[in-house]
Design goal:
The chain is α/β, with parallel strands linked by helices. It folds into two domains: 34-145 and 252-293, D-Maltodextrin-Binding Protein, domain 2; 146-245, Periplasmic binding protein-like II (D-Maltodextrin-Binding Protein, domain 2, 3-Layer(aba) Sandwich), CATH 3.40.190. The chain has nine helices and eleven strands. Strand 7 (170-172), helix 5 and strand 8 (199-201) form a beta-alpha-beta unit. Helix 3 (85-96) crosses helix 8 (264-278) and helix 3 packs antiparallel against helix 9. The chain is globular.
Length: 307
């Protein structure tokens, strides 16, 4: 399901705002220039014989625009070209495989069915490897996963790092995500101890999240730390009060997500490892301020949340 014209227009306006007010150290105009890499013979050789891509000679990838926002995805100044760290990673994968790249902005709810039904060859959507997801998808990792709690800049909340810290609080979190799973697990633990229940708040986009925090409707947001850090640098209206491993209680990874068992994951992993080795991977992370979450090599279906 593609975004409606209304949502696309909203995303375009949001993107123009981000470009006009880019976070320190992030030059969004310069970041419109693609970072490419060389074709990897090893990766190409691992594409299963007779594999049928959605479009011949093309890697079709589901990505986010309005949902996750910068640094993951936004529109360039022309209001139609997708840029961001996720589209950059997708380009490296496609280049390594010797394929053209087609990016399809979609909703978080759409990518799972889109990948399993063959609508997309892959999803690159800040997706964390989890035990449940590995029953339906194959994963090739490309970044560590950390989650951050952010509050209003003048909030009296100074630390949210463990279950008791969320008791009775109103916290924005995206439905169906690993961060929601962490919050619900903490809330369950709190309730067995008689602590006040968490009040999760679900919003549809970043603009709604910002409004909820600034108006006091919510006390904190909990989501990908790189996105929270970007937003905090962008306007100075929020601050970090806690970081949690994405696979709490253990570490976790963000990964390219593919249909289970179709064999493409080996080729994607090889393409990612080629980009890591030749330096193009780190160039992508550096320009989106994500290098703190870099990995040394891509893994296939590692331990994740719930394992």
């Amino acid at each position: 399901m593609m975004y409606s014209a209304k949502l696309t227009a909203a995303a375009a306006l949001l993107s123009m705002s981000f470009i006009a007010n880019a976070a320190p150290g992030i030059d969004l105009i310069a970041n419109e220039t693609p970072i490419n890499t060389v074709k990897s013979p090893e990766a190409v050789a691992k594409i299963p014989a007779g594999f049928k891509f959605v479009e011949p000679g093309t890697l079709t990838v589901a990505v986010s625009i309005l949902g996750s926002g910068p640094p993951f995805g936004l529109y360039a100044r022309d209001n139609k070209t997708v840029i961001g760290s996720e589209s950059d990673i997708a380009r490296l994968v496609a280049d390594g495989l010797g394929l053209k790249l087609k990016l399809v902005p979609t909703s978080w709810e759409d990518w799972p069915l889109g990948v399993t039904s063959g609508k997309y060859d892959a999803a690159i959507y800040n997706i964390t490897v989890t035990h449940e997801r590995k029953t339906k998808f194959d994963f090739a990792t490309y970044r560590q996963d950390t989650l951050g709690f952010y509050v209003k800049a003048d909030s009296k909340i100074t630390s949210i790092k463990s279950a008791p810290d969320i008791a009775g609080k109103k916290i924005i979190v995206d439905s169906g995500t690993n961060q929601e799973a962490v919050l619900l697990a903490w809330d369950k633990e709190n309730q067995t101890k008689g602590l006040p229940a968490l009040q999760p708040i679900y919003v549809t986009d970043k603009a709604a999240s910002t409004l909820a925090i600034q108006s006091g409707r919510a006390e904190a947001t909990f989501g990908p730390n790189v996105a929270g850090a970007y937003q905090a640098k962008l306007n100075g209206k929020t601050k970090l009060v806690g970081i949690v491993p994405g696979g709490w209680p253990r570490s976790a990874n963000i990964a390219v997500t593919l249909k289970k068992g179709n064999g493409l994951v080996d080729a994607v992993q090889a393409s990612l490892n080629s980009a890591i080795a030749n330096g193009s991977y780190l160039k992508v992370l550096d320009r989106w301020a994500e290098s703190d979450e870099k990995i040394e090599h891509s893994e296939i279906n590692p331990l994740g949340l719930g394992d």
